[in-house]
Amino acid sequence: MRHSYSSLVEIDEDLRILRLKREIHVENIKYSLNRTGSNFLPAVRNSAMKVLKTMALTYAIKRIAANLRGSSSDSQENRLEG
Asked: Is the pTM of this model over 0.85?
C-alpha cells in the first residue's frame, strides 16, 4: 500500500503521525512490562520463600536426627562401659 505524496508537508505530517504512534507503542510496552513485573514479582517472592522454608526445615530435621543418633550411640557406649 503505497501512498503518493504531492508535497513535503504531507510527508512531514505522516512522519510526525508515525513518530507519535511509535511513541504510543513504546509507552504501551513499558506499561505492560511494568504491570507484568508487578504481578510477577510477588509470585516469585512467595515461591522463593516456600523453597527457603522447605530447605530450612529439611536442614533442621537432619540436624535433629544427627544429634539424636549421636546421643543414642553415646548412651549405648556409656551403658556398655558402665
From this structure: no
